[in-house]
Amino acid sequence: MTWLRRFTQIGLWFGGALVLLAAVLIGIDVILRKFFAASIGGADELAGYALAIGTAWSLGAALVDRAHIRIDSLYVRFPMRLRLVLDVVGVLALLGFFGLVAWHGWGVVEQSWVSGSRSQSALETPTVIPQLIWILGLISFVIVGIVLLGHALALAARSELNGMARLISTRSAEEEVEDEIRDLKQRQSSERST
Fold this sequence. Notes:
single chain; mainly alpha
């Protein structure tokens, strides 16, 4: 699981960097338009690509860190075994949905490649480039989800239900507090060392 967490963190940093760059690019474009009556041209197109690619590459980290939003008002009242069954069903549904998106997305990438499609902006970007990076992010998310689910089911087969819950269940309030305290201690120790 360590390599999986590392891989998803790299995807998260990549996706976050793209979104940050898009925000900077749009900010520069707004300033140019406001004060110099000029434009970069294509900033909105590049920002759209960055948002789609950044989201796709960040999904895996959200799954591994259990950061996807769930409404759990009833969930927390169920017995642990029922919660775990619901978690497995939830992960399967998530993977099924994104598997279909990736499957059909791959068809879009193929069509763009065959037809040599380009964007209709001044940049005339070959659409296969951002689409390919996007689809690779979605495929990596599905693979991460399959590995995570397989590991969780292996834990269930060994009756390690608490370990399984730490992999795929929603984070409890106690876990959230523990993580915040650990992050605070890490920041304080790094501040003392500098």
